[in-house]
Specification:
By secondary structure, this protein is an alpha/beta fold. Helix 9 packs across helix 10. A seven-stranded mixed sheet has the order 6-5-4-3-2-1-14. It contains ten helices and 14 strands. 29% of the residues lie in helices and 23% in strands. A hairpin with an 8-residue loop joins strand 8 and strand 9.
């Protein structure tokens, strides 16, 4: 890995993000990595084409965990395009259970949280996330000049996760639900308790306080992701985060940028490395 290659900016492009399905492109000029494949193969290909990426040009797919909104398109996609897949041991068990047909075993790579590995221009570290499936993780991507992270499906913000996010230039962070919308909504009680529990998802309020702390520590660029279709709204999540940042005297487009990942179509890419 050369300094010339590694100094190129990292770009985060959410292709889809939400309870309906997730896939995020993390790239430099030379390396293209898909994080999760939670829509069907056709939709993933269409989204990649919209951002001018040929699926055959992907260097790897990283899987955060084995829930269907993160792996539903993986089976067909990987057999069609033969892209290497990286996941934790427990997540691999879930992936294999969900497969309708086996893919080439040579495409399978097992990762260990906290043990860094390299793909192209990136040094990557997975970190454990508290969620209601074993092996769930987020990812940090580092080059010589930039650092980015993807962190969704988090029951609560642990010190370990925060330490990995601290100092990143840009982060896609979960803002899954608004507490009032969840508890006043139509979900059954057991599901509300699961979502709001320590192995569920990150609510708007906890996302907001985390972003405020990260911004004060130096992170400038944020994407809110994995919003619930039933228990959140983009404007509600955005308002909650903005209020928390304003309470710390942090001003949008001066101290930070904030955008919301679209549920069904690619979001405008976030390129790290430039000035605010």
């Amino acid at each position: 890995m050369t300094s010339e290659k590694s100094s190129r900016p990292i770009t985060i492009t959410p292709l889809f993000s939400g309870s309906s399905g997730n896939a995020i492109l993390v790239s430099t000029d030379d390396t293209r990595i898909l994080v999760d494949a939670g829509m069907n193969c056709k939709k993933i290909v269409e989204a990649l084409n919209m951002v001018r990426i040929n699926p055959f040009d992907l260097d790897a797919i990283l899987i955060t965990h084995d829930h269907s909104d993160h792996i539903s398109g993986l089976d067909v996609f990987t057999r069609k395009f033969s892209i290497p897949i990286y996941a934790t041991r427990d997540t691999w068990s879930g992936i294999h259970r969900a497969e309708k047909k086996p893919h080439l075993p040579s495409l399978d790579y097992e990762i260990i949280p906290e043990k860094s590995f390299s793909i192209g221009n990136f040094d990557i570290t997975a970190f454990d996330t508290p969620h209601d499936t074993t092996g769930s993780c987020g990812y940090c991507f580092s080059t010589v000049s930039n650092r980015a992270a993807i962190a969704t499906d988090i029951g609560y913000m642990t010190p370990l996760i925060f330490d990995h996010l601290k100092g990143c230039d840009g982060i896609l962070l979960e803002a899954n639900y608004d507490k009032d919308m969840l508890w006043n909504g139509e979900y059954p009680y057991y599901l509300k308790k699961r979502i709001d529990g320590n192995n569920g998802h990150l609510c708007n309020d906890d996302c907001a306080s985390t972003i405020a702390a990260l911004c004060k520590a130096g992170t400038k660029h944020f994407i809110l992701g994995h919003l619930s279709k039933e228990n959140n709204l983009p404007q509600v999540a955005e308002r909650t985060v903005i209020r928390a940042l304003e309470a710390e005297d942090l001003v949008r487009d001066r101290d930070f940028t904030l955008r919301i990942a679209n549920r069904y179509v690619p979001t405008e890419p976030l390129m790290l490395g430039g000035s605010l």
